[in-house]
Structures are given as C-alpha cells and as structure tokens.
Write a structure and sequence with these properties.
The complex is a heterotrimer of chains A (273), B (367) and C (275). Chain A is an all-alpha fold and 273 residues long. Chain A contains eleven helices and no strands. Chain A has two domains: 32 residues, no CATH class; 183 residues, MetI-like (MetI-like fold, Orthogonal Bundle). Chain A starts with 6 loop residues before the first helix and ends with a helix. Helices cover 40% and strands 16% of the residues of chain B. In chain B, 48% of the residues are buried. Chain C is mainly alpha-helical. Chain C has two domains: 64 residues, no CATH class; 171 residues, Orthogonal Bundle (MetI-like fold). Helix content of chain C is 75%, strand content 4%. Chain C has eleven helices and four strands. Chain C has a two-stranded antiparallel ribbon with strand order 1-2. In chain C, strands 3-4 form a two-stranded antiparallel ribbon. The chains are: A mainly alpha (273), B alpha/beta (367), C mainly alpha (275). Chains in contact: A-B, A-C, B-C. Chains A and C meet through helix 1, helix 3, helix 4, helix 5 and helix 6 of A and helix 1, helix 3, helix 4, helix 5 and helix 6 of C.
Chain lengths: 273, 367, 275
C-alpha cells in the first residue's frame, strides 16, 4: 500500500530529521576539538578517543545502562501491552481510575519518583531484615524503577494502536474455534504489533536516558551512563564525553546497516507478519 | 514490521557483547571495578563530588594498601544525604560541605573520625582547625575549599573596580550572570549591603530581596548559571562578568590566560568540603588510612593541582602549582578569613530563616 | 468467571506492578506532605496542613499570602502548551510521511527518529548551546522552545505514527470522489482516524513538558522557575520534603484535573479516545 508522498511533505520530513541530527553533527565535530572545555574551536585532535578508551568507568557504565534498558524494556513491554490490550477490550467503570493510574507515572516529577522509590525500597529492606534477609540497591532496584515509568508509555501506545478496531474481532476468532491464547497470538498481537514496537522503542529510549530515578535507586558502585555524565557535566561537557556519544551513534548506525544487510535475502519471502 | 524489533535488538545485543568483551580484556588496574565485594576484602567506598580527586592519587593509594577504591559521585549535598539515608548503599567516606556537617551528625549518619590520632593531622592549617561546624574536629578534616568570585575575560572587558557594584550598583551597563544557587546569590547581596552571609534578620533579608529584585530586572542580567557555562560564555564574549567558584574559573584560566577572577572588595562567600567517616562504614580502618594519606603534603598538593580548588594543608603549600600560588583569589588571606570578610556559608539555624531564604529565591524566579 | 480470569490476565500484572511500585511510594509521599520539616531534609511530627497551605499561597508561619506558586504553575502550563503545539506542527506531518513509506524504509525512518535520543539528553542540550550561541540566542525563550520540541518530538511522533499506520485511505478516496476539496476531504476522512494517536501523542508530550525544567534552565538561562524547579529545589537545597511533596501533588493534580475535565466534557467517547 505504498503511496506517493507529496514533495512538500518529504521536504518537511527531511527538515525535521535535519533538526534532530544537527546537534549530533555538532557533538561529533566537537569530539575532535583540541580544547579541554570545548566551548571554542582550538584545532583538530583525536586524542579524546584515546582518553575515552582508557576510562574503565565509562565502559562499565555503558554495560550497566544497556543491561538495565534491555531488561526493563522487555518486562515493561509485556506488562504494558497486556494493559493496553485490557483497556481496549474492557470498557468498564474501572476505566477512569485506570486512566489516572497510567497517567501518574508520566506526570509525577522524576525527583518525586526517585525519592519515593528510595523510601519504598528502604521500607521493604527494613521488613526483610526482620526475616534475616537483606539486599543492596543496584541493578534490580534500578531496573524495577525503570519498568514502573515505562509501562504507561507502552500501554498508551498499544491502546491508541488498537483503538478503532472492533472488539468483536477477538470473539470472531474464538467462534472459529481459536483458544483465547491462540486468538491473542494470531489475531490481536499482529494488529497491535506496530504499537507494541513503538512503545518498546519509547520505553527503551526513556530507560537509556534516565538520570534522576536511577541516581536515587542505584546504591553504591552501580552507575549508568547518564549518572556518570550528569555528575561529570558539572565541570562542563568534556570532549571525551562527546567522543563517547559519537561512538555510540556510529555504533548504532553500523549495527543497523549490518543487520539490514544480513536480513535482506530473507525479506523477499517473509513478508509482513 | 517484525524486522524493526529484530533490527533494534540485533543492533543492541551486538553493541552490548562488544562492550563487555572490551571490559574483560582490559580489566586491569581499574579505579571502579565492576563486581562489588561484600564486607571482606580490602575495598574502600567513597562518595564525593564529581571530578574532585586526581585519579593518579587513587591509584597510588590502591597500590600502597593493596586495596580497591570504589568512587561514586554526587552533585549536591542533599542528593547525597537522601541516598545515604535511604540505606541500600554502604560507603566508608563522604565529602559533604561544611554547612552540611551538623545535619549529618543530627541524622546520626557519622561516626567520630578521631582525626587527631592521624599522623598527618598536624599538616592542617590553623585557620581550618576547630571550625564552628565541628568544634575540636570530632567528625571532619578539611578536604578542599572554594571562595566565590567574579570572573571576566580581560581580552574583552576591564572591570572599573573590583567590587560587587558592577552587578548590584545603579548603573546597568554590564552583562552579568549569577550562580543558580540561593545561598550564593542572597549571600552576595547581603555582603554588598554590609551584612553577614548567614543573616537571619528579617529587615536585612528584606533589603537584600529588594536589591535582588532590582538586579534581576536589569537589562544586563543574562542568566543564573554555573561555572562551566560562565567560563564558556566569557570566552565566547556573550558575557562580561560572572559570579563563579574560583576553582571553576582557574581551570579555564590555565587554558586561556585572559580569564581572570577577583574576590570583590566588599567581601564574599566561601565553603569547605570535608572528609567524614560514615556510620556503618564497612572498613573504618582503611578509611582512616585514606584520610591520613590525603593529608600528606604531596598527595594534598597533587589533588589541588588537579582540581584547582583551595588547599587547607600547610605541608602542601610549597608544592602547589606556581600558577595557583600566583592567583590572589585562590588563597584568600588569613586576615580576610578571620575578619569574616570572606565568610563561610553556614547552616541556617532556625526553620523560619530557611523559609525566608526560600521565599526570596522563589520570589526572584517567579517574576 | 472466564471473563474475570482473562480480565486479570491482561490488566492484572501491570496494575499490580503499578500498585506496588507506584501507588505505595506515592502514598508514602502523601504522608510526607502532611508532616513537618524538622531539619534539613528531615521530617517529623506533628501532622499539619501547613505545606498544603503554602502550595496554594498561604504562608502560615508569617501569616501572609504569597501566590508565587500559582503564577509559576500558570507559566509552566503556557510553556508546555506552546511546546506541545510546536511538536504537533512539526511531528504530525512527519508521522504521515513515515507511515506512507514502504515497510523496510518505514522501520529505518522510525529508528532514525529515535537514534539521536540514544545519546545523552544533557549532551544534546549542550550541543544546542554551541549551535545557537553564534546567533546570540542563548539564553532566550526561543532557545527554550527549540530545546523543548527537540526533547519531546519522538514521544509525540511515535503514537501518532501508530495511528496513521492503520488509516483506512479508502475513506479519503471516497470523500474525494464525492468532490470534496483535498483539505476538506482530509479533515473529514483521515483526521478523525488519527485522533487517538494524536491525543496520546499530545499527552505524552504535554505532561512531561509540564514537569521538566532542565531545558529552560540550560537554554533559557534559569531566569524564571517552572513548577519542576520548585519541586526540585525543595528536595534539594531547601531540604523541605513535606513542602516538596505537597508541591508535586499540585503538579500531578493540575494534570489529573485537566484530564478529568476533558473526560467530563467529551463524555464516554472522549474518555475512550483519551486512553
């Protein structure tokens, strides 16, 4: 169902993409800037890449960030999709409270979420210690916190994708003998998939960039990239941080191109799900 | 559409794999090793301001004591306090600012450091011993300190006098910025009016508020902003004069000698960061060794030569970078410290006073 | 019974998660808003409504009305609203462009939309300083809006895209066949179909924009506070957690009341479109 797009629309789209990538371009350029504080151009250098690669803490933070982002996105996508589906399927008197429940993680200020989760975790720890168990804040506490703010984004996106499809679709599938799991997998999920993926992308992006909630819930010795950057940016964005961003962007782009190339031969027969 | 997810996942998992294999390959001599050992082992955990210690110094300590140092950072005293009080994180040492010590004592977060028993205790300058926030040094030793000054770019602007007048006076010809910090900004106004930076007098505070209201409505008022931004704006020439922590400016001045800073003649604010031993420290003996190590003249000088922040250590003084020693604003005179012209920002005592400061700040920002 | 079981199979896990990790902590927060600040960042008894009084402008300690908060809230709403409007103008056409590409290209364009956001937010905002400084635009209100749109655009485009993706274009053709001019045909046949996505997108943009303050601090020069600043300051420097908690309920309340009013005005249908 490919259609021609109006030239003005294409031009507009590429303008917006230009707007999105302009700062990326600038930070790539400034990662080669021979000035420690990076405000003005002081000549070309590649030394910051050396500085960056020598930083053990940065590598560790990158690993932590990706681990948290991937696992929290996985959980929140499953939970959020189910919630989105439930919202679409049942119009009930619970809709209003559910709406508010889902909107709360979006409206709650980061710092409030961070502080309140910190207090919650220490309450739970206090309770556990009575039974002789304990835990330190770290990967798990951060990951659970991220799931909490991600669920709504996934649920909202999935719900808006399904909105307008007739709920009887599912009943029809079951009338034809499909079990509820089958009808979910064969009928509903494929319909919802673009929404699920868009929601997962949002969730992943949010996790990747979260500072405040992570800071409060992370305990000692567990640091993600935003925490590392926010605490070092007090001294200004240094060129090695720009170098890091450049590498991340380059790496993502290369990985996407490579994955695209690998999958190309199969694209012909697979078709849309 | 399936491909979209696969693309994303493929890209990411590949990314992750490579990052971790890198770590495995070069995991030697780390300052922040990945796995966190439980109480045993020789691990020292410190939470301090970011970029506030020379990494070489940390490595030196790790080698000497055959221990590992985990260094976590904070960017405000209050966040650090929240994190410590929430539990779930056990640190040995922290570096709170002076006005925060008593709060931490009352919250039962500290244990006595007994600094007098440390062999290098005698290196601390007399002006920094027995401070009012910790009489007889039960809990703290001073680590580094910073006065607040006014910065300019001598290539583009020449201040007519080394005074707050350029900002708070009646003329409106200078483009200036203030720190985004209530105590610093209200403190500066109080100082200009001839009062204490810790004033709790309602009339004085009202006067300061009115002065600040006039000040932020000047055309020349550019922004509330912090050190690095001020430095960059001075270099780019979009700003004439900026309130700044002296250390932040000196870091830039080492790169561009046109960047200058002065301590205003009416007086200004100063604050010390201290080393404290936390209650529940898993390894207090190692922590005391670290404090003693930092008090060594050479180590202390190396730290200041790295951070460009003020140094309270007499044994370190001759070893400081000549550039730092040449800067008047780097080391305020002992006279100015004693007379209170360069005045420590202290904890506000009464709840009412805190409320007044907060109201002045909100008032300024709500216009 | 079966229906009930499936009800819990879909909504159950997510709702349970939010109940544990969101409602309980928020309830703790609410408790805090009723306590008294005893020391910097410390709370204790007695229970009081003083913080709530201050939120709405009454300072019981000095027996004075200080309506600064409400002024700040009003300004925050204006700034978030205008930023959202800009996002709609920029992002709505973009969602159509993406949705009407071949499948392969579509995934590519979506990823292209998101990739800039995989570098750190703060770093991107600082990059804008470098771009805008030669035009003498930092700090300025223009720079703030630019930064806000930049920060929230994908959160608007993605939900809209997922709606546009399933638009039934035959309706447009039908409208055109009936002789409607293109703009009118679009408004009648296509626009209503995108409404759920549009509303979700607006929500996901406006609401976080209302609570944010980093952009306006960095690109706007921090001259004026937004409601997010006030909250942050109470948990930070001012160390007044009860007041900070109460203030964050003001922020959340403003949004929830807005939603409720919308739901009331639009009736059941409006609510359906909302979520």
């Amino acid at each position: 169902m490919t259609r021609r797009t109006h030239p003005a629309l294409s031009a507009w789209a590429w303008l917006v993409y230009g707007f999105l990538y302009l700062p990326i371009l600038v930070l790539i350029i400034f990662s080669f800037n021979d000035s420690k504080f990076g405000a003005t151009w002081a000549g070309f250098t590649t030394k910051w890449y050396g500085v960056l690669l020598a930083r053990e803490d940065v590598r560790e933070a990158v690993t932590n960030t990706l681990l948290v982002a991937l696992s929290s996105t996985l959980i929140s996508t499953v939970l959020g999709t189910l919630v989105g589906l439930g919202l679409w399927r049942y119009s009930s008197r619970f809709r209003l409270p559910l709406t508010f429940l889902l909107v709360t993680p979006i409206v709650i200020p980061d710092v409030v979420m961070g502080v309140s989760l910190l207090m919650f975790y220490s309450l739970v720890r206090g309770g556990l210690e009575l039974t002789g168990w304990t835990f330190e804040n770290g990967f798990w506490t951060v990951m659970f916190a991220h799931v909490t703010f991600q669920i709504s984004y996934v649920a909202l996106t999935v719900r808006s994708r399904l909105a307008g499809y007739d709920r009887s679709l599912e009943e029809a599938a079951r009338d034809l003998g499909a079990s509820s799991v089958q009808s979910f997998l064969r009928v509903i999920l494929p319909l919802a998939l673009p929404g699920v993926l868009a929601g997962a992308l949002l969730a992943f992006t949010l996790s990747l960039d979260d500072f405040v909630v992570t800071y409060f819930t992370s305990g000692s010795g567990f640091r993600t990239l935003p925490v590392l950057i926010y605490t070092s940016v007090k001294k200004g964005v240094t060129p090695d941080i720009n170098a890091l961003s450049t590498l991340l962007v380059l790496f993502t782009v290369i990985a996407i191109i490579a994955a695209n190339a690998i999958m190309r031969p199969r694209a012909g027969r697979g078709g849309e799900a | 559409m399936k491909r979209l997810l696969m693309l994303a996942l493929l890209g990411l998992s590949a990314c992750h794999r490579i990052e971790t294999s890198d770590t495995a390959a070069e995991g030697q001599g780390a300052t922040t090793p990945a796995p966190v050992e439980r109480n045993g082992g020789r691990v020292l955990r410190i939470i301090m301001w970011s970029d506030y210690i020379d990494p070489e110094v940390v490595k030196q300590f790790e080698k000497r004591e055959n221990a590992r140092v985990i260094l976590d950072t904070f960017e405000s005293n209050e966040y650090m306090l929240a994190k410590l009080q929430g539990g779930g994180a056990s640190y040995d040492l922290a570096t709170p600012s002076n006005y925060f010590i008593q709060v931490m004592v009352r919250a039962k977060l500290l244990q006595p450091l007994e600094a007098q028993k440390l062999s290098n205790f005698g290196n601390i300058g007399a002006g920094f011993l027995n401070p009012n926030f910790d009489p007889s040094n039960v809990y703290t030793v001073p680590y580094q300190y910073a006065a607040t000054g006014l910065a300019y770019n001598s290539g583009r602007f020449t201040p007519s006098s080394e005074s707050w007048k350029l900002i708070f006076g009646d003329t409106d010809t200078v483009r200036f910025s203030l720190l985004d910090d209530p105590r610093e900004v209200i403190g500066a106004a109080l100082k200009y009016l001839g009062y204490s930076v810790n004033s709790s007098d309602v009339a004085q505070l009202r006067e300061a508020r009115d002065l600040l209201r006039r000040t932020v409505s000047k055309r020349g008022f550019e922004s509330f902003s912090g050190g690095p931004e001020v430095r960059n704006k001075l270099l780019a020439g979009t700003l004439d004069l900026g309130q700044i922590y002296v250390g932040d400016l000196l870091q830039g001045a080492a790169e561009d000698p046109n960047l200058k800073v002065y301590l205003p003649s009416e007086g200004t604010t100063i604050s010390t960061d201290t080393l404290v031993l936390l209650r529940g420290s898993p390894n207090p003996a190692l922590a005391r060794k670290f404090v003693n190590f930092v008090l060594e003249g050479e180590v202390s000088a190396a730290i200041s030569n790295y951070t460009y922040y003020g140094n309270p250590n007499t044994a370190a003084a001759p070893l400081l970078d000549p550039f730092l020693r040449s800067q008047k604003a780097f080391n305020p005179s002992q006279d100015d410290l004693k007379s209170g012209k360069v005045e420590f920002i202290n904890e506000l005592q009464a709840g009412n006073t805190t409320r007044l400061y907060d109201r002045i700040w909100t008032d300024l920002k709500a216009r | 019974m079966l229906t009930l079981r499936r009800f819990f199979a879909t909504l159950g896990p997510g709702v349970l998660w939010l109940a544990v990790f969101l409602i309980v902590p928020v309830a703790i927060m609410f408790g805090y808003s009723l306590l008294t600040r005893t020391d910097l960042a410390q709370v204790g008894g007695p229970l009081t409504l003083e913080s709530w009084g201050r939120v709405f402008g009454y300072d019981a300690l000095f027996r004075e009305w200080v309506p600064d908060n409400l002024r700040v809230l009003g300004r925050s709403v204006l700034i978030a609203g205008f930023s959202t409007l800009l996002c709609v103008l920029m992002g709505y056409p973009l969602a159509f462009y993406i949705a009407r590409q071949p499948a392969r290209r579509k995934s590519f364009l979506l990823l292209l939309l998101i990739i800039p956001f995989w570098t750190n937010f703060l770093i991107r905002v600082y990059a804008w300083i470098l771009i805008l400084r030669p035009f003498d635009l930092v700090p300025s209100l223009t720079a703030t809006f630019l930064g806000m749109v930049y920060a929230f655009l994908p959160f608007f485009v993605l939900p809209v895209y997922s709606s546009v993706e399933k638009v039934d274009w035959r309706l447009l053709e039908a409208a055109q066949d009936l002789g409607a001019p293109p703009a009118k045909a679009f408004m009648a046949a296509v626009f209503p179909q995108t409404l759920p996505g549009l509303i979700a997108g607006i929500l996901l943009t406006f609401i976080p924009a209302l609570g944010t303050f980093v952009v306006s601090d960095i690109l706007g020069g921090a001259k004026t506070a937004l409601i997010g600043n006030l909250v942050q300051n109470q948990f930070g420097q001012a160390g007044d957690w009860p007041y900070g908690s109460a203030l964050s309920f003001l922020l959340m309340g403003a949004v929830l009341v807005g939603l409720w009013l919308y739901a009331r005005a639009a009736g059941q249908k409006g609510l359906e479109e909302l979520i």
